[in-house]
Design a protein that fits this description.
Shape: globular
Structural class: alpha+beta
Number of helices: 10
CATH architecture: 4-Layer Sandwich
CATH topology: Chorismate synthase, AroC fold
Bound molecules: flavin mononucleotide
Number of domains: 1
Length: 372
């Protein structure tokens, strides 16, 4: 399993399992001089945490983060930043129903076939516990972006028939007031729609079932120039970033229009002296940011762990029934997933920003002017 790192210049490597002693990450490539804002890291982690309300997993880890390397007086030294969080709220007995049985929709079958081993309790590396580290590293990426004025948001924009349609003005409102998202139980930035989705989820929890959801993300004040053709296109890297999040099944740039029904004359963003007249390209042309709002959607599948009885196989290859009476699961992983989406967005953008510093000879000459 030698693929636990993400990024080229800002490289995050995560380690640890759901029911192991701890989870951790090393973030390499953080520019020296960056002030590390521990409160921001803790705040982002608190949004991803379980136990916040009845719509997320009751597993209530305090997610107290320790930074064990790379800091001098709270300033990044340029050495790798290393984080750990000790796992405290482990209840292996809650996973007894799963022992020796493949959990439909989860990673047990493929992990066991590929590696010959699988940690039933908590799901080991397949567990989204790992995403706490993405969120911690994402907060550091956010600090780098903040230094150059780049901002990003993510929110839940669709659960069943509750839909938030966004436009530039709506995004701008959310950038000014991100608490419109974070003060909602389901991170749906609309009081009435959030309440309606709560009712839907309440019904599902009673039935022992789960639901998927759609996340919208957006970044503003990007420079022209993030992303490198041909294999480091910002669009390609964002797709990989998002598709690496557990339970993500779809990624799209823009507003989710059916492109097979749209004409070039409608889709092209015409250019005028006042700038682009529209933003169908969602801020990316040729894999490079064009300075407009970058936005899109991430689609999460329904949580695979449900209380409803399901058919499956056991490790001996016999047909059995699985009824997960216990286990602490999210009825809709998209809710906490939305926090992970922002983290992966920020990591991808900060990585591209650092790579972009060495694009032109002029930039290099400027840096070494005094020496030359
Ligand atoms: C924040 C977050 C929380 C999750 N919580 C659960 C959960 O409680 N139960 C579950 O079965 N899957 C949960 N998942 C999804 C699984 O980790 C994922 O479905 C599993 O690893 C299989 O991978 P795949 O769905 O990408 O194929 C969660 C995902 C995220 C992003």
């Amino acid at each position: 399993m030698s693929s636990n790192s993400f990024g080229k210049k800002l490289v995050m490597t995560t380690f640890g399992e759901s029911h192991g002693e701890m989870i951790g990450a090393i973030l390499d490539g953080v520019p020296s001089g960056l002030k590390i804002d521990r409160e921001l890291i803790s705040y982002r982690l608190s949004l991803r945490k379980g136990g916040r309300n009845s719509f997320v997993t009751p597993r209530n880890e305090d997610d107290e983060i320790e930074i064990i390397s790379g800091l001098k007086d709270e300033i990044a030294t340029g050495a790798p930043l290393a984080f750990i969080i000790k796992n405290k709220n482990i209840k292996k007995r809650d996973y007894q129903d799963l022992v020796g049985k493949f959990r439909p929709g989860h990673a047990h079958y493929t992990y066991l076939k590929k590696y010959g081993l699988f940690e039933e309790s908590g799901g080991g590396r397949a567990s989204a516990r790992e995403t706490a580290m993405r969120v911690a590293c994402g907060a550091v990426a956010e600090m780098i972006l903040r230094e150059v004025g780049i901002q990003s948001i993510s929110f839940v924009s669709k659960i069943k028939d509750v839909v938030i349609d966004s436009c530039d003005d709506f995004f701008k409102t959310l950038f000014c007031e991100p608490t419109l998202i974070t003060d909602k139980s389901l991170f749906i930035p609309d009081e009435e729609k959030n309440a309606r989705a709560e009712n839907i989820l309440d019904g599902l929890i009673k039935q022992g079932d789960s639901l998927g959801g759609r996340i919208t993300f957006c970044a503003q004040f990007l420079p022209v120039g993030l992303g490198d053709p041909v294999y480091e296109k910002i669009s390609a890297n964002l797709a990989k970033a998002m598709m690496s999040i557990p339970a993500v099944r779809g990624f799209e740039l823009g507003n989710g229009e059916d492109l097979s029904e749209i004409h070039g004359s409608q889709f092209n963003d015409e250019m005028t002296l006042d700038g682009f007249s529209s933003n169908h390209s969602a801020g990316i042309l040729g894999g490079i940011t064009n300075g407009e709002l970058l936005y899109g959607h991430v689609h999460f599948k329904p949580t695979s762990s449900i209380r409803k009885k399901q058919k499956t196989l056991n490790a001996e290859g016999k047909e059995v029934e699985l009824e997960m009476k216990k286990g602490r699961h999210d009825p809709c992983v998209a809710i906490r997933g939305s926090v992970v989406v922002k983290a992966m967005l920020d990591l991808t953008l900060a990585d591209a920003l650092l790579i972009n510093m060495s694009t032109r000879l002029d930039d290099l000459k400027k840096k070494y002017e005094r020496i030359i």
